[in-house]
């Protein structure tokens, strides 16, 4: 309403009305006829001028709004691409965090044993020289990797969270990207008990799966089906797509670090590895089924942190909540 009032009192509209009145006065002065007809012509001219000015201002604002909307869509696209790229870097950090501890000890042993060989007088001079060089190289590698060996991710805070809300928020982050490819989401959420863990890390894991589902439909058009249900003392989420699927020989490797089937090699190949690492730490499971050219189904099973309140069973669809309660 405020915008409508501002438009009605905008400068072009008022200027158009003023010019219309001037034309009306000039016409009333010059044209013959009785007073009522002159006043009627003056009113018509004033109204016409006002409406023309109003239309001009409305067209200008519509053009500005369209440009603003295009800028926002571009910013949203760039933000989503940045978010996905940042996820790859975060996954690389998680891999370093998990592997550098196992790398330090072998480097120490290699350097120590090489020094022992280099000091063994029973060996040939060439062998001792090579062992000494090997010890130097091991020490150099250790110094180069020193900053990485001390790298560690900040331990995430843990709290009860609602899996339905994390799924909704992850889907909302990808909805525009999916819409550009004519991909739509079918969501059906059951009333489920809370899950305990790092909600941010779990949401990143869900985001990895959803992005993979969208990218599995490169030819535009398709459906990503998302649902949750409560089974025993587990909270289960199931995500399936109608994409190109995964070949059997690749399906065995999808959780390996740095494995990717993307032809442009734009991703680090750590998304599903990080997803499984995150789920393992909270006692959750992940399973993948896929049929080439038919689609892929991912099932996530979480331990509940508390039982459902009595009487709270069934399906909440459409969703009840829109924000995460972690």
Q: Would you spell out the secondary-structure blueprint of this structure?
A:
Elements: H1 2-8, H2 11-30, H3 35-118, H4 125-144, H5 146-149, E1 159-161, H6 163-180, E2 183-188, E3 195-197, H7 199-215, E4 222-231, E5 234-241, H8 248-251, H9 271-281, E6 285-291, E7 295-303
Parallel strand pairs: 2-4
Antiparallel strand pairs: 1-3, 4-5, 5-7, 6-7
Helix pairs in contact: 2-3, 3-4, 3-6, 6-7, 7-9
- Tell me roughly what share of residues is in helical segments: 55-70%
Assembly level:
single chain
When the domains are counted, the total is 2
Q: What does the overall shape look like?
A: elongated
The end-to-end distance, rounded to whole angstroms, is: 37 Å
Structure report:
- This protein is α+β, with helices and mostly antiparallel strands and 326 residues long.
- It folds into 2 domains: 1-153; 159-303, Histidine kinase-like ATPase, C-terminal domain (Heat Shock Protein 90, 2-Layer Sandwich).
- It contains 9 helices and 7 strands, in the order αααααβαββαββααββ.
- It has helices spanning 2-8, 11-30, 35-118, 125-144, 146-149, 163-180, 199-215, 248-251, 271-281; strands at 159-161, 183-188, 195-197, 222-231, 234-241, 285-291, 295-303.
- A hairpin with a 3-residue loop joins strand 6 and strand 7.
- 24% of the residues are buried.
- The mean pLDDT is 76.
């Amino acid at each position: 309403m405020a915008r409508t009032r501002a438009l009605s009192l905008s400068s072009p509209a008022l200027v158009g009305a003023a010019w219309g009145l001037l034309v009306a006065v000039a016409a009333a002065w010059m044209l013959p006829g009785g007073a009522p007809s002159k006043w009627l012509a003056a009113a018509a001219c004033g109204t016409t001028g006002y409406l023309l000015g109003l239309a001009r201002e409305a067209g200008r604002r519509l053009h500005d709004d369209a440009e603003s909307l295009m800028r926002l869509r571009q910013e949203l696209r760039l933000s989503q691409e940045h978010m996905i790229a940042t996820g790859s870097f975060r996954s690389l950090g998680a891999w370093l965090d998990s592997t550098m501890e196992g790398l330090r000890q072998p480097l120490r042993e290699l350097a120590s044993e090489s020094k022992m060989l280099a000091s063994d007088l029973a060996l040939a001079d060439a062998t001792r020289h090579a062992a000494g060089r090997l010890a130097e190289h091991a020490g150099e590698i250790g110094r180069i990797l020193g900053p990485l060996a001390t790298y560690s991710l900040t331990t995430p805070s843990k709290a009860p969270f609602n899996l339905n809300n994390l799924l909704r928020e992850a889907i909302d982050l990808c909805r525009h990207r999916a819409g550009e490819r004519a991909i739509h989401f079918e969501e059906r959420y059951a009333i489920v008990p809370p899950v305990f863990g790092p909600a941010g890390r779990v949401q990143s894991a869900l985001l990895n799966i959803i992005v993979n589902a969208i990218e599995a439909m490169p030819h535009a058009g398709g459906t990503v089906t998302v649902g949750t249900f409560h089974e025993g003392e587990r909270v289960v989420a199931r995500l399936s797509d109608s994409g190109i699927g995964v070949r059997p020989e690749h399906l065995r490797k999808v959780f390996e670090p740095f494995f990717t089937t993307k032809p442009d090699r734009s991703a680090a190949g750590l998304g599903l590895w990080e997803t499984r690492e995150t789920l393992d730490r909270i006692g959750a499971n992940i399973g993948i089924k896929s049929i080439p050219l038919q689609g892929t189904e991912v099932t996530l099973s979480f331990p509940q942190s508390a039982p459902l309140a009595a009487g709270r069973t069934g399906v909440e669809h459409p969703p009840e909540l829109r924000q995460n309660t972690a």
